[in-house]
Design a protein that fits this description.
Shape: elongated
Number of strands: 0
Largest sheet: none
Structural class: mainly alpha
Distance between the termini: 65 Å
Number of helices: 3
Oligomer: single chain
Helix content: 40-55%
């Protein structure tokens, strides 16, 4: 009901101070994100060929015939 907009947690204060004292950390975060998440655009033709050339899998692969 009543929001205290001036409240800042101890962790937030710590992180803000840490990032001010170590500006290179932000660049490391960007590089880490690019390494793990930001991928090259997908080539749709190549993806379609890979799907078409795949071998269909059995519904239950552990079942012996």
């Amino acid at each position: 009901m009543f929001k205290n907009t001036q409240y800042v947690s101890e962790f937030t204060q710590f992180m803000q101070g840490y990032l001010q004292d170590n500006p290179d950390v932000a660049q490391g975060q960007v590089e880490g994100r690019a390494l793990l998440w930001d991928k090259a655009p997908i080539n749709l033709d190549e993806r379609e060929r890979a799907i078409e050339s795949g071998v269909p899998q059995k519904p239950y692969p552990y079942l012996t015939e």
